[in-house]
Automatic annotation (TrEMBL):
Taxonomic placement: Bacteria, Bacillati, Bacillota, Clostridia, Eubacteriales
Ranges in coiled-coil conformation: none
Topology within the bilayer: Multi-pass membrane protein
Top-rank lineage group of the source organism: Bacteria
UniProt protein name: Uracil-xanthine permease
Annotated localization: Cell membrane
Amino acid sequence: MNPNQPIRDARTLGLPKMLILGLQHMFAMFGATILVPILVRQYGLPLSIQTTLFFAGIGTLFFHVCSKFQVPAFLGSSFAFLGGFATMANLDSGMYAAMDPQDKLSYACGGIVVAGLLYLILALVIKLAGVKKVMRFLPPVVTGPIIVCIGLTLAPSAVNNASSCWPLALIALATIIVFNIWGKGMFKIIPILMGVVVSYIAALIMNACGVTVMGADGTAQPLMDFTAVAQAGIVGLPPFQLAKFDVTAILVMAPIALATMMEHIGDMSAISATTERNFLQDPGLHRTLVGDGLATSLSAMFGGPANTTYGENTGVLVLSNVHDPRVIRIAACFAVILGFIPKMAEVIGSMPSAIVGGVSFILYGMISAIGVRNIVENEVDFTKSRNLIIAAVILVCGLGFSSGLTFHVAGTSITLTGLAIAALAGILLNAILPGNDYEFGVNSEGDQNRGIHA
């Protein structure tokens, strides 16, 4: 067998190697996937790590069914919705005044259910009109600045978390940089996980030495608290909860689907290029969008975060040269199994917020940086006034409306987030202003790099 030829049927390697390859994919997605519930917990909403892992696995399997078992993609939890979770956590008007965090999470999940269903609308439009016509309304001059806004609006929370213990945050940050730049083999594609592991070990040592942090009440508290770990069982069901629906929550969360749908399209292009198979044509972009959207809605309906296709696992495809979707499905099964181990979830949940802050320095910055890359690689011409105007209005709306825009309709208080306002303004201006010369598919390199996660 030619070692340079990709392996499209991993069964030729034998079951033990397939399991190891699946474990590698699970590790690649693990660090980023579990960070979403950890970050959301920092906002004050009790998103479960167990539920997140369970629906990452179930969502991936569901996606493979919808895509005819052809696409080697893993669906992990989406960082794009973090801004929405933060906004929901801070809502304190109308029905959300003094609302229990568990209920707020349910309403946030209801908004994500609707966001997932928006994928079905785009899938139907693409099926009927074709990819090129649809993407003309969502050019990089719109999506790029929106992605930049997502990262920049989250940046303050990274600093706030890191400030609780700067030495620990810097250990996490430095570890990620070292493994990302100088790491070899598998370690190079899991720098986030290594940053978490190394800084967690450092936190254990610091905690044993009596290091304390300042609590919310102004008193010194231990760096780590293992009370919940001791109380958790080894095996247990994920804490599912049904989503609830409200217009405000829907308008906070649903518009974020604009960014994640662009991410999906970019990832499908990247996976197609990596495996030398045109998945946008067969099984079709409309099928993969349906799989991604329904996986997101299914997860949120029972208290989980939004799912999204993961670029990390595309990196594993390149590294291993094994392109068999069966290996991805093995990784999904591992994720489901981890969802039934509460003690492991609580060990992860005991992570100090400073580690989260250090890791977030990279993650949030990368979100914005990839938005810039999206603009550069698609060769957006900022010598044109229309492009400057669109980008300028999006950035000011996304960053300026930090508290959103609240208005009342028929006695109901409705809040549009800065990101939602920015997305609506960008799409509207792009449709109205003359001179739109973007055509999807002309610049394949740019189209393949439209994702918003590292």
